[in-house]
Design goal:
The structure is a homoheptamer. With about 210 residues, the first copy, chain A, is α+β, with helices and mostly antiparallel strands. In chain A, about 35% of the residues lie in helices and about 35% in strands. In chain A, a hairpin with a 2-residue loop joins strand 4 and strand 5. Chains E and G meet through loops of E and loops of G.
Chain lengths: ~210, ~210, ~210, ~210, ~210, ~210, ~210
């Protein structure tokens, strides 16, 4: 029922979206454009789609904004709680598994999202993709979500090399998202956000188009 | 189920509506026309669509009147409670996040609304848009909701300038809503309400057509 | 049946499109952006949407490309035939009526289009809008078609003045289409085409974005 | 009706397909992979998807094999007839327009195809894309059809440069199709066919994977 | 409409069927089991599914018996006519193309069949597969049709070798069909028919199970 | 409802998949390819589909990833609990029956999966297949799940012999999955995982393609 | 809803099945073939379809395996409980009534089964048939369930005589199931299981085909 409303009746913002995540030798890169839509209307050209949820872990969101933002708020609270209770930071895999469990346990009225959890922990850089009901996959190279993802994947398949540095990875991520913006009507906006996550932490830069 | 009744069976008032909100250098402006409909019938030409919910925060409503008015009552009560419990006023962002949580937690039987929360707090002027299930976006320039919003957005895209004053913003808001009234059957009525929110508080004026 | 295929199955290019037409004191202006789509994919960023069909008459197209282009080819042939048979040019109203008849006579398997016929003849400047089954309306001020038309109409309602000159009209048309490109995911591309039709004939200019 | 059968009942081969076409400074390049499918089954790993229809004009096909192959047979016969009747070769644009007319005149029971017509004539290299009901677009840079086209377009958007040579174009086309094969379940097979069309004529090479 | 009756209303015999065809170094082999069904009922355990249509060309049929048998009769008559008119036998490719044209020209009310045309002509052994609307593919190695074809293809993919002899090919074909009979409820019967087509002509043998 | 979402709306990863399991004289073999899909897109080429759930018991998964992974996590926890409570390892049959009960008790909102539970216990090697609502079958020879299973079953029907050794069984399993990868668009990836389960425990090897 | 899933989406094993039950003068006979299906695929050739649930009572199952097997597990537990609580064995009629109550109470999400409960108690031999929602009928002569039941009933109508002995009844049951296997694509497998229930208890024999 619920999903049917989304399309047909309810005025709900969606992030058509292109997000990408790359595993690099010294960290991970995640990037996203900034457009959100409400049916055929551009609802925003300045949407946030990359959210730090811990010192060295970030999420990217695609899908229905209200659902995705709620999950970000949950995860931030859960990770803080984890740290307090366990006196240590959660691993990237731990955060992704926690999120998968939240998604799966809501599968009857699912969150309409596609997510990337990316971060850097004691095991080094790691990226996980999650679908709407908690399907979880560790990505050893790269991943992309949202309506523009097939286009971005074309660029990544063609240009990704193992042992890529975070700097090179960020440039490749921008090229992938630029191509998606050119060809996907659900992606766009005025800038691309690029987050580099290394052992130093998360730095998010805005790349004007 | 519920939404299906709305269209097909239940005699329910809806605000087809055009509302706009603009961030100005010295405050925010929100404006709305005053028509509401019941099916194809004009139910009222004097509907209120702008509601102060705190000294310097207002909401605009679009969608099903009964849902939206309930949310206004909730918010007024919650903000009073917040002030009592915390001995301070809530920020605009805090009010908007609270409203987003209410909307998201009702997503199985959602409120059929599109809302703007606008206000002035210690950080200055701020506008947030919310969709029916709590998708929340801070608007740095302007936003519009309701059936007439594409038309109003045309005027705002064309005429908005950063660092606009509240006075100029009010005039631009009126022009945007006038254009929407001309071209959207869901918008109309005898007057336009315009609220200016500055550090002095909220002042709502009626602009006769 | 046929229309159902268009949406659900057939790989068919559509011009989501924003086109506008304005009646000016010394001629008419028509303008259009240049994006065409294939589902969610941008099929082209350089689509032609303004077609001269006679010395001083042009058509703009919105909808399914294959249908609209066919109508352009028909009209060009028909207007040549008219000239040969009648030893005079057809009037703008005559051309629009002819096109309406073609559309109406195909209403069982309709052309999936929204059209503007604009031109300059002995009676001066004239603009006609046509829907998919031949609904014909003379526009005394301005008109807009396509998915971005509500946004463009916002700008035109706000900015159009009677007795506008072709030069001013062209500038207003560009502002209207720019606003639509900003807010309609079906409109875009790299440039705006603007045609000025005066008693001197048709001149089409490309306005880079 | 007919299209409904295609999906639900009739055992019909489809070329999920990725084809690309590029305009180069000294000719055009078209390329395609070689997989065809029958529902979830791989029907062939050696399908032909590039068909010369004249000395210097070729077609690529995507969609339902039976429909596309029929169009190839029509076009070959029509172009021979044209040459006999007109004592000259048809132009690339002429061939594409002829094909558009065939497609449009069958739109009630449409051919379920997506086509590229590419060639070299007195005006130089030219590429046209056609959709199922004859929507025709001259492509100034490149185009791609079929289920893998978004992925291929990613590579082409990222890697295409104006004034590319046919040799470079062929390498880029192969990279684009390779990426599509990696990520599109409808594309694959054992080799990529690449056709270079220059003023010398058409040469098709098989690039083993 | 017609196809809908087949499933739901009309009592029509179908050959669920497994047929296979293999290209061998000295000829071609086609084989088929002998069950036909009427809904869930086994209509026959002795159906013919291999039909010689010329001295050295045979067809296998899968799908609706009445449709397929009609096509066999057409082809036999057409090939005789061809021989009389042209004073020579048709090539295997010629026969297959002729059949493709018949199927394509009936695509509005299609023949519900999947066919293999296999034979030996001056160019040596050749196999063509045809789908319901005339999609035609030359098979360089092997092909299989009908509900049991995925299972048979498993055996053929695993066991086929280039330069296989007709004798070996016949044994592999029998193994493929046996596996399909074991696992496909639409395939069965009391025996497998195997046709060897070499330059000597067609010999059909019955292999009891 | 839920299943309807899976196909039409929700972005959910599925393992089109081919998995096989064989009972051998000295153990069991399970094998799987490594592709997962998201609609027409290849979501991963490195998916895990074989999961040890105890020292000598493993599960293979096919269907919706999020559902299957959840069941793996449940089973691992349940088997640990069983061991603690009962001071002994569960039998393969016991594990399969436990899983069947979990599946059956969720049949209103079923897990969209097809599973094999394979292992070695005091009774020797054993394989059980389970469908989405807990239909449980002990397989005395071999089984296969997923979109490529008919093709794999062809190879297994043709090549399986009782009293096969684990080494031979592993080679046959690889041949079966290779054939499925060739002919099933839902199966693929860069390697085949093969698990041999004997009384020594589970060893999983990666077989590069 | 649930039943719709079974047909269209869920990979669920079904026993197309032929089972028969005969009342004989000195006991009852039940028999079943051993094939189960998954759509068009033969999922197993060695399915169990006769289950003893007490010393002298057995059930046969047809329909969805997961549902039927669950009912067998329930019944075994319930009958043990009955014996403990009542210090006596339940009657055949009591067992059948208990099962009918379970089926009826789940009619909102029904078990997709057709069942025979057969046994010998103080009142002598007795057979009861049950449908999916608990419709219960005592069969005084014979009964048959599953897709092959019309064919089996043909043989039973023809050959059954009152006062038949268990030995003769077993031979008749085998003939009935053999005929069904020949003509029903949902029935088959490598053997027929035949259970004779007399005052001595249950003996199940396997009759190879």
């Amino acid at each position: 029922m619920y999903l049917k409303y989304l399309d047909e009746k309810l005025p709900v913002k969606e992030t058509g979206t292109t997000t990408v995540g790359l595993v690099c030798k010294d960290g991970v890169v995640v990037a996203a454009e900034k457009k959100s839509t409400l049916g055929y209307l551009v609802a925003s050209k300045e949407s946030e789609k990359i959210f730090p949820i811990d010192d060295r872990i970030a999420m990217t969101i695609a899908g229905v904004s209200g659902d995705a933002q709620t999950l970000v708020r949950y995860m931030r609270a859960e990770l803080k709680l984890f740290e307090v209770e366990n006196k240590r930071k959660i691993s990237v895999k731990g955060a992704a598994t926690l999120l998968a469990n939240i998604l799966q346990s809501n599968k009857i009225f699912p969150y309409y999202v596609q997510l990337i959890v990316a971060g850097f922990d004691d095991s080094g850089p790691a990226i996980f993709s999650l679908d709407a009901i908690g399907g979880l996959e560790e990505e050893k190279k790269f991943f992309s979500t949202g309506s523009g993802s097939p286009i971005a994947l074309g660029v990544l398949e063609d240009g990704y090399k193992p042992e890529i540095s975070v700097e090179e990875g960020a440039r490749l991520a921008i090229r992938a998202i630029k191509a998606a913006i050119e060809r996907d009507i659900g992606s766009g906006g005025k800038a691309i956000d690029v987050a580099k996550i290394t052992k130093e932490g998360i730095s998010i830069e805005r790349h004007e188009l």
